[in-house]
Fold this sequence. Notes:
By secondary structure, this protein is mostly helical. The protein has helices spanning 4-7, 18-25, 36-54, 61-68, 72-78, 82-95, 109-124, 127-139, 144-152, 158-172, 180-200, 209-228, 230-242. Helix content is 69%, strand content 0%. Helix 11 (180-200) packs antiparallel against helix 12. The longest helix has 21 residues, at 180-200. It is elongated, with a radius of gyration of 27 Å.
Amino acid sequence: MPDIGATIPAMPPPPADDDAACQEKRCPGRPPVLEEGERRDLIMRAACKVLHDHGYHSASMDKLAHVSGMSKKTIYQMFPSKHDLFRNLIRERLFDGKYTPLIGCFATPEDELVAILLSIATNVLQPDRMCLIRAIVGEIRDSREIRKIMDSIEISGHSNQVEAWLSRQQAAGGYAIDDVVELGRGLFGMTIGKMILAELFHCREPATPAAIEANIRRWVRFFLRGLSGEGACAGHRAVALSA
């Protein structure tokens, strides 16, 4: 019997630089080579969708791998546990908003405060952020793990941006600010908070950027009048006139 293997010509070895060329051109049949930041973002997006669709208890690493298109090994290399993954998701997407005040670029403190709140609104009211908030609201009562995650997160983003502004004004002595934390929470609630609630419960059509800015500026002016004492003075005048 002839040696059949001998009739098949041997494949020549690939050129030494084929692998490098393939990395450059992303050869057909191979998945694209993603940067670590891109892989992390895909995993985060998948985690948000899985949490929304299946809940925390059923959000397995298998589901996360399937939705993200990443291997479980890749996910575990970035996040050692499911708890760690979802803690990072919630902290980064909801609480670590980045804002650097542009000192000297605002005509008034009011303009700077409006810009801070507008940057927060633009970030929080994005569809993927609202999807995450809805998922958390749906899980918070029944999932002890989600409650632990929320309790463990040190809020270092949105509220602190407002509190930092209040602290600067308190130091400058321009307004009567006695409790930075409480006033910051109050201002956040009367501006961003009510918009989040409206989005959560679909109370109205999504507002345009211009409408959001106008609404924020209106409530900021009420807030600053209260801090400057104008609201109190107006109230005393009204009482005096009625008497």
